[in-house]
C-alpha cells in the first residue's frame, strides 16, 4: 500500500487497522485471565515454553480473523499456516514473550500483522499487562496509546551515533560464538545497554525511548508486526544483510532510530 491510494481504499485499510487493533486488545484481555495463574508448562520441539494461554489466545485471534476475512490466510505460532491466499496473510503471535508470561513479568505482548503480497502493511503491538499499544498502518503513521487511554503519534529519537544510543536485545543467550562477541561489542560501545523485552522494545524504539535493537533466532510471527511500527515511526528495520524484512527472513533483525545508526550496527556485525 502507498500513501496516495484512492480515498475509498485508504478508508478500507484504516478499517482493517482498527479491526486488528481491536482484535489484539480482545486477545490481550483473554491472556490476562491466565497471567500469574498456575498453568501447566510444556516444551515445544525447540525447547520454548507453551501454555494453555498461548493456544486459547491464538484460537480467539484466528476466530476473529476468519469471521471478518474468511478468504485470508493465517500464520500463527501455535497452529501454523491455515488457508492459502497469496495476497493477504495475517500473522499472529498470541503471547510474544512466553518466558516472561510464565515468570510473572508483565513485559509480554500480543502481535497482529497483515501482509499484502508478502509485505507487512498493518502491525499491532499490544501490551496487555501494561495497557499500552502501538498501532501502525503503512503510509498512515503509528499511534501509541498509553494506560490512561491517551493517544499520540509515535516517532523515533533520531539518535545517529552508537555512543549516544540506548541499545536493547532480548537475551545474549540467543547469540553464539563470534556473533555473540559482535553483539557484546555493540552493547559495550553504546551509551546504555539493556536486555529483555521481546516485542516491547520495538514499541519503545518507535516512541523514541530505545535507539537500537539487534535480535537473533526470531520467527516470522515474532517480528512481522513490528515492521510497520518501526518504519512508520521513522525508524529502519532490516535483516543483518540490510534487506527488507518479510516472512522468509532468517530471524536476524536490526532496528534503529536512523539510517546512520543502522549502518553502524550492520558494519559491526559484518566483522
UniProtKB/TrEMBL annotation:
<comment type="pathway">
    <text>Amino-acid biosynthesis; L-histidine biosynthesis; L-histidine from 5-phospho-alpha-D-ribose 1-diphosphate: step 8/9.</text>
</comment>
<keyword id="KW-0479">Metal-binding</keyword>
<protein>
    <recommendedName>
        <fullName>Histidinol-phosphatase</fullName>
        <ecNumber>3.1.3.15</ecNumber>
    </recommendedName>
</protein>
<dbReference type="InterPro" id="IPR000760">
    <property type="entry name" value="Inositol_monophosphatase-like"/>
</dbReference>
<dbReference type="InterPro" id="IPR020583">
    <property type="entry name" value="Inositol_monoP_metal-BS"/>
</dbReference>
<dbReference type="Pfam" id="PF00459">
    <property type="entry name" value="Inositol_P"/>
</dbReference>
<dbReference type="InterPro" id="IPR011809">
    <property type="entry name" value="His_9_proposed"/>
</dbReference>
<keyword id="KW-0368">Histidine biosynthesis</keyword>
<dbReference type="GO" id="GO:0004401">
    <property type="term" value="F:histidinol-phosphatase activity"/>
</dbReference>
<keyword id="KW-0028">Amino-acid biosynthesis</keyword>
<comment type="similarity">
    <text>Belongs to the inositol monophosphatase superfamily.</text>
</comment>
<keyword id="KW-0378">Hydrolase</keyword>
<dbReference type="InterPro" id="IPR051090">
    <property type="entry name" value="Inositol_monoP_superfamily"/>
</dbReference>
<keyword id="KW-0460">Magnesium</keyword>
Amino acid at each position: 500500500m502507498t500513501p496516495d491510494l484512492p480515498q475509498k481504499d485508504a478508508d478500507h485499510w484504516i478499517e482493517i487497522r482498527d479491526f486488528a487493533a481491536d482484535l489484539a486488545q480482545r486477545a490481550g484481555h483473554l491472556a490476562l485471565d491466565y497471567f500469574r495463574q498456575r498453568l501447566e508448562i510444556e516444551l515445544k520441539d525447540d525447547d520454548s515454553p507453551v501454555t494453555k494461554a498461548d493456544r486459547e489466545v491464538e484460537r480467539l485471534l484466528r476466530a476473529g480473523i476468519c469471521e471478518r476475512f474468511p478468504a485470508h490466510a493465517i500464520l500463527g505460532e501455535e497452529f501454523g499456516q491455515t488457508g492459502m491466499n497469496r495476497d493477504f496473510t495475517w500473522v499472529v503471535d498470541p503471547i510474544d514473550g512466553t518466558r516472561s508470561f510464565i515468570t510473572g513479568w508483565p513485559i509480554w505482548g500480543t502481535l497482529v500483522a497483515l501482509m499484502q503480497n508478502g509485505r507487512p502493511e498493518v502491525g499491532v503491538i499490544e501490551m496487555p499487562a501494561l495497557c499500552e499499544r502501538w498501532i501502525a498502518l503503512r503510509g498512515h503513521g503509528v499511534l501509541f496509546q498509553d494506560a490512561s487511554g491517551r493517544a499520540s503519534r509515535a516517532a523515533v529519537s533520531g539518535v545517529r551515533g552508537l555512543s549516544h544510543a540506548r541499545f536493547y536485545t532480548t537475551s545474549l543467550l540467543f547469540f553464539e560464538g563470534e556473533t555473540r562477541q559482535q553483539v557484546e561489542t555493540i552493547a559495550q560501545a553504546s551509551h546504555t545497554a539493556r536486555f529483555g523485552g521481546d516485542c516491547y522494545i520495538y514499541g519503545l524504539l518507535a516512541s523514541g525511548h530505545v535507539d537500537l535493537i539487534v535480535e537473533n533466532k526470531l520467527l516470522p510471527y515474532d517480528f512481522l508486526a513490528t515492521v510497520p511500527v518501526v518504519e512508520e515511526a521513522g525508524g529502519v528495520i532490516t535483516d543483518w544483510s540490510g534487506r527488507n524484512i518479510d516472512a522468509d527472513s532468517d530471524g536476524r533483525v536490526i532496528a534503529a532510530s536512523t539510517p546512520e545508526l543502522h549502518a553502524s550496527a550492520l558494519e559491526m556485525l559484518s566483522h
